[in-house]
Amino acid sequence: MGEVEKKISPVFKWGGGKRQLLDDILPKIPPNTRYYEPFVGGAAVLLGLKPKYAVINDFNKELVNAYRVIRDYPEELIQLLQGHKDNNSIEYFYEVRAWDRDRDSYDRLSDIEKAARTIYLNRTCFNGLYRVNRQGFFNTPCGKYKKPEIVNESRIRAIHEYLSSNRIEIRCGDYKDALKYIRAGAFVYFDPPYMPPENEDETFTQYTVDGFGEEKQRELKGICDMLTKKGVKFMLSNSCCSFIKELYKDYHIEIVQARRNISADGKKRILIDEVLVTNYKI
Questions:
Q1: Which of 133, 217, 264, 266 is deepest in the core (most CB within 10 A)?
Q2: Please, are residues 109 and 74 in contact by the beta-carbon 8 Å criterion?
């Protein structure tokens, strides 16, 4: 299916990203299938697998815009990112972060300017965490980096080459809409916002204005049931908590370990259990 040995590194640092779990995930994906990823996020699995046909989606319009710009205008994007790199400072970070507070002014920015802003903030904010407040404004604080990698020309060009040379549909919206016309024989990888493990809050799991609590987790499980009946294989990642294990008890569950790296408490940056759920035997 994809050229696993030639993985492309993601351009985004992403809370909960799957780059560190690729050795667990990629070998378990059935070969030669139409690939769907409704919560694409940092796209580590997509770029590790590199399928020739894929439908990727995310509810985060800034993220989706950045992928489309990487596909269509890589050189212009690189040029703007170089400008952000040249001007980078704590004061400059907060100036750029505040651009979206003036909605009229922000709407006048080009898609390339918005994408460069999104990538710049992601590469310089606290642990690459994408978080918004109730008004939908990006509000992650500046990270403490001596030399953050703001522009990686070879990485952007590699992602551009992959996205533009293959049949990759890039969609923005509800994850269910990305699956409307899916057919038997396809494969779906779900990486939704996680359920917080027991005894943890959601302080650092806010991804978009709308949360993804128990009701939406149950809705997603219903979608998985529908796909199974339709003859579509799926894999789902989530936290290894009692709610998720009970919810998917009728499916195959494998426990894998990942390093938590978005906690504000450095002592919590330890290996934690996550689950991989499939409707097929590995």
A1: 217
A2: no
